[in-house]
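Aim 2, interim progress. The first record below pairs a target sequence with its structure tokens.
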Amino acid sequence: MNVNSISGLKFVLFIFWPWLVNSKGEQNRLLVNMTLVQNATALGAYCLDGSLPAYHLHRGFGAGVDNWLLQFEGGGWCNDIKSCLDRSKSNHGSTRYMNKWEVFSGILSNNASFNPDFYNWNRVKIRYCDGASFSGDAKFYNGTSLLYFRGQRIWQAIILDLLPKGLGHAKKAMLSGCSAGGLATFLHCDNFTSYLPKNASVKCLSDAGFFLDERDIALNHTMRSFYEGLITLQGVEPNLNQNCTSTLYYPHLCFFPQYALPFIETPFFILNSAYDVYQFHHILVPPSSDPRRHWDHCKLNVTACDTSQLNILQGFRIDMLTALRDFYQNSTRDGMYINSCFTHCQSETQDTWFAAGSPRIHNKTIAETVGDWYFSRNISKEIDCAYPCDTTCHHMI
């Protein structure tokens, strides 16, 4: 499978996870209706196909009525006209093809037993339909096909729609996201803070969004090349962190979280697996680097990996921890949870966020660690031991 089609297909497994959360029956799931942003046209904020952007809002209550959690949806990217045209005809490029009701679970749950710290906040899921982690600002038209690369405007339109609905006087707020949405959190964290009251407590959380600038097993910069195409096509570079782009010789590298992170001023939490399966399959071992498919069995089942393959995977973990070393050692306001599970995205799924059998590091769940960090209750930097030591993992490979 070509890296240029990095999109919904790879995320089929994750689409179904929320439906597996609750064995007690459908009545226990929280389903939240879609809101189309009608004023988006005034900003020229359109999905790839020209449809209106959208979000799902579930109102807070009680002590959380003035607190807000915004969650970017994930779903890969597109970096050329063909893959973006294909995407524009799917639920990752058009609100016309999206489910109008979304399951809210994990960090989006309204049940204190499942989401003890954020259950009564206003919770928003921002739908993803631009293909560049909400960061592009361009348009393509060749007389036949029309594509809008307007992720930056979509972000702005949704924020402006939410401000008069209560976000504008938030007392506490957190911007979060999963996968490509987790990357969007790095890109928009400080901008989110700029919209909110000066006395608000604002923080950001990225789940499975720490995509590494890493050579693949053939020593090619496959992901760097992919992002270069995306940035050029979708007009992303002007929307990257200006302090970062003015510092690096190659400004487009600021799309990678490891280069943007030192310039983010808002408190930040990084939730990631050291063996993130998406990065394993598409950054470390993309199909282009394994034409004879020696890694197929290992990709499908980590217990089938041979010693050499396991050593390469351990090297990837070391590279991720090295990229995070300064963040871990020198930051006092930030948090992290780097576990050793072969998985991707853990905050929106109940059984990995907060449940009896959830993954744990030093006996702490992800939800407990994030809550301790946000509310400054405890030190919240956890790094797991290397695979296969963690017996609490939910491997989704």
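The second target in this work package is listed in the same format:
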Amino acid sequence: MVSLRCTTAHHSLLGSPTCLAGPRRRARPVVRAAVAVEAAAQAKVSLIRIGTRGSPLALAQAYETRDKLKAAHSELAEEGAIEIVIIKTTGDIVLDKPLADIGGKGLFTKEIDEALLNGTIDIAVHSMKDVPTYLPEGTILPCNLPREDVRDAFISLTANSLGELPAGSIVGSASLRRQSQILRRYPSLKVVNFRGNVQTRLGKLKDGKVHATLLALAGLKRLNVAENATSLLSVDEMLPAVAQGAIGIACRSNDDKMMEYLSSLNHEDTRLSVACEREFLAVLDGNCRTPIAAYAYRDKDGNCSFRGLLASPDGSKVYETTRSGPYSFDDMVAMGKDAGHELKAKAGPGFFDSLQ
């Protein structure tokens, strides 16, 4: 794990007047200095250390978490109370290979989980679509912030939509979910691996390396660069990734204080929809070689509507299902699980064997 700490504020170096009170003695300057250093060290101790990846989007999500914590708890609004700890993950370091080729699950969370468990950080902020369906023993994810728009954005300098791209046009995407849904509707297009953070991908597009790309609208909005979107794809055109647009915050399972802080930020509607989608993913044992999409949301009647999709990377085989039921944790987890088993049965074991 490679980590770099960046504090959210400067700390004043003030000695303790109580400790320094008493008669002046010329022979004790070392003691005064030691007390001052000790007081300064105590002033630098953060109440919460937030672990995050170092990409601009990851930092934006960490800052959002920090600001919500400060607003909800007066003691966290004090100078130096919250520290941001940047952690490089495998997914950030290896950018020249598809995710599936370097391990798939946990590429953007493993090192952060390790820092959480060894006490380097107190909470971890994740994009929920990067979080494996299992959590490391000793950690818990009790909080989801309000979900952002789940749609994908189409970005191109030459066309207004996927349908306008000429045959043979190159679309850049590291996501097999996007690739399969693009090729299902537009088999004449070519999809190539396209890794890197949002700014890197936008730069590659402007340099003409691809004719178009797709990015999550949620990320563009959190970075205040949504104006780069040429158009938006409806969820009917492009079903989102499991938990797309949702931020999750983890802590150690025995850290009651952190759980108390995080419970004050939790958005329950988001937590339930994410739980439903992740249960669907868990049944299908989804990894970076399996194009899977899902979306659970509260409909106009207050119930949960769910859509799930399983596909082959080339879009030639697509299995879909829907569910509807009460917007409650147990019901929604059951819906996600049942939908996953349905598509697993429809696809058959040979389908999954072909993806290995």
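DSSP finds twelve helices and 14 strands in the chain. This observation will shape the mutagenesis plan for the next reporting period.
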